[in-house]
Structure formats: C-alpha cells, structure tokens
Specification:
single chain, 2 domains, about 60% helix, about 0% strand
Length: about 100
C-alpha cells in the first residue's frame, strides 16, 4: 500500500465531544448571568435617570410635557364643547 491509501491509525479516542466538567459549566453559566445582571443594572440606572429628569422638567423640551395624540372621538367631543361655548358666549370660547 502506498501512503495515499493507507488507513488511519486508531488511537481509541474516535470522534468524541470535548469533556467539560460540571464545575466549568457552572462557572461559565455564572459568568454569563453576572454579565447580564451588570448590563441590566446599567440600563435600569439610565432609565431611572431619564425618568427623574423628565419629572423635574430638565430635558423634555423646556419642561413641556409631550403632546398627547387624541382619538377621533376625543377630537369630535372637543369640537362639540367649543361649539357650545361659542354659542353660549362663554369667555373661554372667545379665544378658540
């Protein structure tokens, strides 16, 4: 037989998965959890800071609360109220 057709030597190991002991697996899982917890804590701290600034009016466009979008039903109700106010001569309706 030539080198090309020579069968592979069998050393008894075969194609086996790498053995990882339970201690290593536990350490790896713990490291992943600790890393995820650190990231979560960072995000929560950022969210708290943003919320506090919004509550104090520090960064929401000069303290103005965000504009609320009205539904069609709410818009129609507002129009009816304005119409009644103008029809009755209410002072608040004069500026509308």
């Amino acid at each position: 037989m030539d080198e090309k057709n020579k069968p592979a030597e069998n050393n008894g190991e075969g194609n086996q998965p790498r053995k990882i002991n339970l201690y290593e697996q536990t350490n790896q899982a713990t490291e992943r959890l600790e890393s995820a917890n650190r990231k979560t804590e960072e995000l929560l701290n950022r969210q708290e800071e943003i919320y506090q600034r919004q509550q104090l009016g520090g960064e929401t466009e000069a303290g103005i609360p965000a504009k609320i979008e009205l539904t069609e039903e709410q818009k129609l109700a507002a129009e009816r109220i304005k119409a009644v106010g103008k029809a009755t001569g209410a002072k608040w309706a004069e500026d509308l």
